[in-house]
Structures
1.
Amino acid sequence: MTPGEWAAFGEVAGGPAGSWGCPWFTPASGSSTTRGFATVSIPDMTIAPERETPPVRRRVGRPLILVSLACLALVAGMAVRALMVSVPVEKAPGVALADVPQGVTLHHVNGKDVWIDRVEDQLTAFLDDAHHLGDGVVYCTDRGVFMSPAHGELFARNGVALDGPAARGLDRLPVTVEEVNEDRRVVIDTSSVSAGPPKVAREDRHLYVSREVLEGYDAGPEAGFCS
C-alpha cells in the first residue's frame, strides 16, 4: 500500500489526517473484540540531493615558480652573451715594437701590406706596391734590395727605384713609436702616403747598391738573384 493509500485509509477509518491508519484488535475476555487504530507519523522520505564532490586542486604553484626562474635565468644568460658579442673590444693601434725585428719584415697594417725597415730604433715603412700592374715585391736579404718577381723591378733598401718598369720608388708611410698601456707600439698612418722618388738613371745605380748586386741582377732571374 502506498503512502497515499495509507493516508486515505486513516482518514476514512477515522484516524487523524496526515497519519496512517493501522487496524488492530484487542481481545476482551468473554466479549467481542474492539477495533482501534494506531497512529504512526509519516516520516520525511524526501531524498536529499547528493553533494557535489569538489574538484581536486593540484598544487602547481611550486613547479610553476621553478620553471619561471629557469626561464628567467636562460633569458638573462642569453642577454649577457649577446652584449659580450655585440660590444667590440678596442684593439691596440699598430704593431708591437717587440714584433718588429731588426732588418726588413712584412706586416699587415690597417688592411694593407707594409714593409718595415728597422735599424736599431730607426723605422721606415713602405707600401708593398711595385707600381706596375699592382704587383708586390719581395726583400732579398742577401742582396739588401727589393725586387718584384713578376716583372723584375729593382729597388734599393731605402725604396729608390733602380731598374725595371716602375717609374718611381716605393711609397712611404709615416711611422711613429707610441706608448700604449705600457706597451711600445709601432703606429703607421696608412692614409697618408708619400710618393716614392723618381727612378734613378741607370749609370747612377751603383750609388745605391754595390756593383756586385747590379751584376747579379743583370744576369737575370735564372741566376738565382733573389733566392
2.
Amino acid sequence: MRPDATDARINLGTALSHTGRLPEAIAQFGEALKLDPTSAAIRNNLGNALTQSGRVPEAIVQYEEAVRLQPDFADADVNLANALTRVGRLPEALERYQTALRLQPDSVDGRYDWGLALVQAGRLAEAADQFERATALAPNNAVIWDQRGVVLAEEQHLAEAEACLQRAVKLAPRLADAEANLGQVLLLEQRPREAIACYENALRLDPSLTAVRQSLDRARALVGR
C-alpha cells in the first residue's frame, strides 16, 4: 500500500472495524486523517471505531469536528448525539438529535435513538412520538414496536401499549423482551392468565430473565396457581 493511499487506508480501517480489530482500525483511520485532515467522513469513521473501543470522549472530539467540517452530515450528528448520551450529556445530545432529524427526517435509527434519549430525560410523551414516527418509517421493526409499547405503558396508555407489543411479538416471535413486556401490560389490565402465557413464553426464550420469573410468580398467585 502506498503511504498516500487515503482510500486504501479508509477501506482497510473499515474492514478491520467489521472484524473487531479496533486498535488496528483506529491506526488506519488516523493515518488516513493525516493525509486528509479536512475529511468529515474519516473523522466519523474514526469516531465510530473509538466508540466501539469504549473511548467515547475521544470519539466525541472526532464527531464534533466532523459536523463542524460538514454541517449537513446527519449521520455524524446522530453518532455525536449517541456518544453524548453515553457520557451523560443529555441536553447537548437532545439538541444534536434535533439537528440530525432536521437534516434527515426519515432516519429510523436517528428517531429511535432520539426516543431512547428522551426516555432517559424523562420526557416520555416526546419519546412516544419519536417511536411512533420510527414505526411509521420501519413498520416491520419489532424492537421499535416493543420500545414504543413500553413507553406507552409507562404513560398508562395500556390499550395502545398492548397493540404495539402484540405487533412486536407477531413480527419477532423469538423476542423475549417483547413477550415479557406484553405480559406486564396484560397484568396491569387485570388479565393474569394471559400474562402468565407471555411470561412463560419469555422464559422459554430466555431463562435468564429473573425479573420475569418474579412477575410470573405474582401472576400465578393472582389466579391461585
3.
Amino acid sequence: MVTFDQHANFVSTTVTSAPTPAATGTTMSVYGDPTTYFPEAPFNVIVYSALTFPTSLNTEIVRVIHISNTGQLTITRQVESSNQRSIGIGDIVSITITKKTITDIEDAIKPLTSFVTVTGSNANIGLSMLLGNSNTRYAADKGWQFYNFDTGRWHTLICYGNPPQLGFDAGDV
C-alpha cells in the first residue's frame, strides 16, 4: 500500500544557513522553528533562488528527512530526478505539488480500478474478491454497497484514513 507524505498548505520559508558544500551538503537551516509550520518529515520541498520563478532548470527538489526546532533541516538531494543546484542563504524552500504527489495518488487507486466493471448503464464492484460471498450495487443516495449474507444487511463502502483504507458501515436491512 502507498504511504503518503504529510501535507501543508502555503508553506514557504528562506534558507538562513546554506548546506556545506552548497551543491551537495545535506543539512541547512531555515527561518524560525520549522516544526511549527512544516508537517512531520519525510516530505519533498522545492528549493530555488528568491530572484527567480521556479523552473526545472533552476530548482532542486529535496526530501526533508528530519526537522529540528532549532531551524535545521536534514535533506536528501536531487530527488524526483531534479537538477542539482547550489543552495544559498536567502533561497526559498516551499512545499508544492510535485510529480511524486500525483503518482502516489495514482498508485493508491490503481488496485481499486480492477474491482470496478461497467456494462452498459450498470456498474458493478467486485468486492466478493475481498469480502467473500456478497452481492454489490450502487445506491444513488449512499454509494457503493455490498450485501452481506451473514448479517442480512446492505453495507455502504467507506474510504477513510491516511493511508487510505476501505471500510463499511453497520448496514441497512
4.
Amino acid sequence: MFGLSTLASSLIGAALLAAASFGGGFYAGHHWESVALADQRAQDAEKAAGDAAAALKRLEGFVSSMNLASAQYDQTIQQIANGFQTVQKDFANATKAKPLPVNCKPDAGRVRALTASIAAVNSAANP
C-alpha cells in the first residue's frame, strides 16, 4: 500500500494495536482508581458527618446539664439568701429586746431566739 512489506505493515499494525490496547487499559485502570477513590471519599464524608452528629448530640447533653446545674445553683443561692435574711431578722429581734443588765441571766425566750439564730447560721454554713 505505501510500499511497505507485509511483515513491516504487520509489525506496525501490531505496534499500533498494542499502543491502543495500552492506552485503553491505562484509561480503564485510571478510571477504576478514580471511582474507587470517589467511593472512599464518600465513605469518609459519611463517617465525618456521623462523627459530627454524635459530637453535636454530646454537646447538647453538656449544655442541658449545664443549664440544670445553673438552675440548681440559682435555687441554692436563693435558699442561702432567704436563710441569711432569717438569721439577720432573728438576730436583730434578739438584740432589739430590752438589753440585759450586767448581773442578769437571759430568760428562756432570749436563749431560744439566740439558739435558733445560731442553729440557722450553722445549717446555712454546713448544708
